[in-house]
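Run log, item B.
One chain of 120 residues. Sequence copied directly from the ordering sheet:
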Amino acid sequence: MLTVQTLLDHGYRKINTPLVSVDITLPGLVETYQKRVEDDHGVRYYLNVRHTQITSGMSLEILEPHVQFERQGTVVNVQMLQREESLDQVEAYFEEMWTGMGMDYEDGTPAIKSDATFKP
């Protein structure tokens, strides 16, 4: 199960100032944590986790992992509807997608089929 502390322990950093929800039916707090995923050739993608805390009448905390991949000019947004997966499972899932689908590096360079070492 994901927690903010697990994200911080695995090198994620908060990338923005918390936003207070303007939706009066779901007042709460929204933050985003991010980790740069890279190898010897560059940045593969950024894994973001949106953290939402709803504070109206109930206590609800949601962590939603998502990434944006690109291949040959086509951009794909992927959001994981998280249940009980561990952070390791989440990271492995997105890595499998990036590798298996031959996505481009962040700078637009096509994925290199080599022995590049993944840096978690």
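Observations after the first pass:
- The chain has a mean pLDDT of 83.
- Strands lie at 13-14, 19-20, 28-39, 42-54, 60-71, 74-79, 118-119.
Flagged for discussion on Thursday.
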